[in-house]
Amino acid sequence: MSAQIQGDAQLATQVKSPDLSDLFIQFLIIGAVSFGGGIIAYERILLVEKRKWLSPDEFMAYLAISQTMPGLNSVNMAVLAGDHLRGVLGAIIATLGLILPGSLFVLGVGMIYASTADHPLINLILGGIAAAATGLLAAVTYQIGDTHWRHMKSLVIIICTFLLMSILKLSLPYVILIMAPISIYLYRPSKS
User: Fold this and answer.
1) What is the pTM of this model?
2) pLDDT in tens, 46-69
3) What are phi and psi of 23, to 5 degrees?
4) Are 109 and 175 found together in one domain?
5) Fewest Cβ atoms closer than 10 Å to its Cβ: which of 1, 11, 64, 105?
6) Is residue 135 located within the same domain as residue 158?
């Protein structure tokens, strides 16, 4: 019986500690196939569902931390997940894997765009890319906020935030100054 428990513990350790090449390749794939805000959705699929390197709670905690750090949330998530899985070297490897495809793509597209900026097809292609990024961002927002769509308080906060940013065109710092105190008040701990 104890041999089975030790085997399960070793399996859990192996699942939690991927080798560096696997970590790099998985984040390289995410960087190559994702657009805009959709990267977080792909990271969740990889880290939580596909490889089970993080629990859903660990992922949400790292996402919350990554949103408070300067820079892109997806890159911050790669740094935090890589560090959790393999230390500093894991953070570097995961980050390089994530940003390498996009960097090469932007460099190539920038060189092409510089030579063909006046072509009408270019604007159509950029419009399509923007639509794809918007769709992926909407999908990840729905997936991450899955439980919040069922609560009236959360829906009110979501709708008010949307109205302030999209209809009234307030900048993000003003929206945070307005909505953060309201959200904290609505979700304050009950006295019971």
Assistant:
1) 0.59
2) 999 999 999 999 999 999 999 989
3) -60, -45
4) no
5) 1
6) no
